[in-house]
Design brief:
Strands 2-1-3-4-5-6 form a six-stranded mixed beta sheet. By secondary structure, the chain is of the alpha/beta class. α4 links the parallel β5 and β6. The chain has eleven helices and six strands. The N terminus is likely disordered. It starts with 24 loop residues before the first strand and ends with a helix.
């Protein structure tokens, strides 16, 4: 048994008598553990250790030869206050913090619970930074309001790992606030709605004219100039924000200046 502070044994069974555990153990950093997570993970075997990365969780599984492997995911609880403090030093400082975690875990999907409700004046900065990560990285961010919501989200991720094993898990498997994309149209709508200020109504109007990303890209390439392309969706007839939203959509898919995108 790994040295630490395990609070659940590895032989856990449901009231019906079937074993609940396929994964060997959930390893939780000692700084992250609290009553909310203890309760949320009460059906699983949990080990508390001081992990190399603070406030993280990893999962392990026994193979047929009884050797342990780590699942290709790492969970990070990132308080909004820490997110903003890193962002105050500029986006590169925040990028260095997040990508440092990726570099230390090169074969793992990074899943971040951004915990805490930010003040209204900080929402724009957070949205801009998250847009960068959404477009230019494979780090998945999910907002949680408090430790209880973080624990519930961690449980949903754990269930997805538990059920799917070593299969790759998409964000839709454990993202509880949005229905799964079931068609290419749904996926295209979801992509558009990741752009700040693009509501479902705006996304649907874009899709009505351009039913796929390829058709939108072909439209942009046919425009006489980048300036005309930026404003080419302004005639969708939504509201006075259309020129700004049109430019955001263009910058997301066609822009080459990452800083300008933010």
């Amino acid at each position: 048994r790994v040295h630490g502070d395990p609070f659940f044994c590895s032989n856990v069974f449901s009231p019906l008598g079937c074993c609940l555990l396929q994964m060997n153990k959930i390893i939780v950093d000692t700084h992250l553990i609290g009553d909310e997570i203890r309760v949320a993970l009460s059906e699983y075997s949990v080990e508390i250790l001081e992990l190399p990365d603070r406030d993280t969780v990893i999962w392990t599984r026994s193979q047929q030869d009884e050797t342990l492997i780590e699942e290709p995911y790492i969970f990070l609880r990132l308080p909004t206050t820490l997110f903003l403090s890193r962002l105050k030093g500029g986006l590169p400082q925040l990028q260095a913090y997040v990508f440092g975690l990726k570099e230390r875990n090169p074969n793992k999907q990074v899943i971040v619970a951004l915990e805490g409700k930010p003040q209204a004046r900080a929402r724009g900065d957070i949205d801009s930074a998250l847009l960068w990560f959404q477009v230019f990285s494979n780090v998945k961010f999910f907002a949680t309001a408090n430790p209880l919501e973080t624990a519930a989200f961690l449980l949903s991720v754990t269930k997805a790992v538990h059920l799917q094993g070593s299969k790759r898990i998409s964000q839709f498997d454990f993202y509880t606030t949005s229905p799964a994309a079931t068609t290419l149209r749904d996926t295209w709508r979801h992509m558009l709605m990741q752009i700040p200020q693009v509501s479902e109504q705006i996304a649907d109007r874009v899709i009505a004219r351009f039913p796929s990303l390829d058709s939108l890209m072909a439209h942009y390439e046919a425009c006489a100039s980048s300036e005309s392309a930026k404003l080419s969706l302004s005639d969708l007839g939504l509201d006075r924000r259309c020129p700004t939203v049109s430019a955001r959509i263009w910058a997301t898919f066609m822009g080459s200046d990452h800083e300008a995108l933010l």
